[in-house]
Structures are given as structure tokens and as C-alpha cells.
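--- STAGE predict ---
source: upstream dedup step, 1 unique chain passed
mode: sequence only
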Amino acid sequence: MRLVSFNVNGIRAILKKDFEEDFKKLDADIFAIEETKYTEKEGEEFPFLPEGYFAYQRTSKVRKGYSGVAVFSKKEPLSVHYGLLDNKYDEEGRVITLEFEDFYFVGAYVPNAGEELKRLDFRIQYEKDLLEYFKELEKKKPIVYTGDLNVAHKEIDLKNPSSNHNNPGFTDEERGSFETLLSKGYVDTFRKLYPDTVKYSWWSYRFNSRAHNAGWRIDYFIVSNILFPKVKNSLILNDVYGSDHCPVLLEIDL
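--- STAGE serialize ---
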């Protein structure tokens, strides 16, 4: 299976670029997108509904043009769940889970800690709630977890770690929370396969950052430990443009 995740930074904006062509070229079995910034209007369909895919999407109910996730799957899932336990975080359009015969696919746009770390506590609580949710899912089958997880785990995962220490996405609290997730039986597939490779998945629009490759690796494919032997490759697709992020891809024998 080919699984892809891409923070598109606005579905309407990226559709004006080469997104539809890139989507076809990637030919993913499951394709998750984050930060759609789509505000649902009565009687209006989601602006991207690719042929041959089952489509599921959630929008933010608390703020227009904010957050939002969507997942497209060639195979119809057994079930679909929005948010975490009790649909928590669904009001911001954060998480979609598709259940398949042998695994759960969880696509997420993790809350950003925000300017002056105003949402840091909210974000850390999200990851505590995520672990509780995963505990319930794991009772039935293992998990593939993907999306813009809004954290650079190690110093290798961003260009300037010293000057960004305690900035959103690189606080000790966020990195520690991510470490806790991995310690509960999950694998960061890219870093496990490529322990010393420097690649980024997000670049600020400021200072011509992408041209200088001054970026962060904040988009991931995480899998339950039991699934890692089935992983064939985990890639960061730096040659795909259209957003301030690039897609990440997981090839896995499922």
C-alpha cells in the first residue's frame, strides 16, 4: 500500500496549483490532507473529490478558514470515526480515523502551541487524549498515524535547533510528549529507517526558507511496533510543491 499525508495549507489555494496532477502521480491507496482551511457551506460539496476514492472530511466549527482534515481512500473503510474518544477535538476538525480489516488509519492535524505558547497546555492535553484513544483502538488492531504533528522531535529535525528552543513545535514539553507517544509502542518510520538523514517537510514562507532548505520535519508516519516489519519505505517528498509543507509517503505491506 502507498499511503500519503500532505498539509496543503488551504485546499482552495493548492487546487490553483498542481495539486490534482500531483495527487494522480502519487497514486496513493489512502491520501490524507491537513489544514484544508475549508468552511462548509450549505449545499456545497468539498472542492476536491477525486474519482475512484471514498472521501471523508471535517471542518472547524469554531472558526472559519481554520484547521480541517480530509482523507481519501480507494477502498471503502469498515467504519469512520471523527475526533478522538467521544469525538473530542472534532469541533476543530482535527482527526479522522478509517478502520480497515487489519489496521486503523488515523489522519490528524495536531494543534499548534501557538504564539507565545498560548495553546501549549491544550496541545499537550491533545496528546494525552490521543494516547487514551489509541489504547482503545489497539484492543482491536494496530495503528498507522499520520499528519502534520507540529513537532520536531530531535535537533536533527530542524535547521536551527538552538535558536528555536522553546518556540512552538520545539519546546521541551512537546518533544517530551512525542517521546512518550513513541515509548508506548509506536515507531517514527522515517527516522527509524534513516537515523542520520537530514530532511524537512515544512519551511516558513519567510526569508526564502525553502530555497535555503531551512526547514523542520513535522509531518510523520507513525506505526504500531507490530506493523514496522511490514514497512517497505518512508519518504519525504521534497520535490512536490504547492504548500509550505511537502507530502510524506509510507510504503507498507498491508
